[in-house]
């Protein structure tokens, strides 16, 4: 009887110790998940180009939502993960401005979508580690930075094409020198320059004719 009581006492003590360990581990995990993480700042769309994206509703909504991830804990990141997934999917599936409807830009959106899906999947993993959430959140932020970087690049190229005055003599040289300029833009600028030269020639011819008539009249009077 004494042996049985002793055995039960040992089992009870062992059970209590295990339960305490679980509670301690649970508290430690909760504490770690609540730590505020300072992530690398998201690359912003340049101020000069922000107005160009204002009419793109899906993007501006997602852009504002990312404010929640600038300083966040792993718990908060997970609590926002499902909504983030839906917003990114909405961006991907809805029509985008024509200037962004290119394979390279769509690739950036696909990468962002994949990273957002992975973060959302972590909300269903009970034993997920804090470091795994932190790492995946960082990947999501980097993917969104890549999208913004591409937006800046697209508008910078467009501004360059709109403002550049291509020298006609430059065209016809090594084509690697004009890889960054679209063929359509080059043709357009070339036509504009040729037309400008024609108009200048016409004006010069009219001036010469007018001057010739004046000289002729002066000679007749003499």
Automatic annotation (TrEMBL):
<protein>
    <recommendedName>
        <fullName>Lipoprotein</fullName>
    </recommendedName>
</protein>
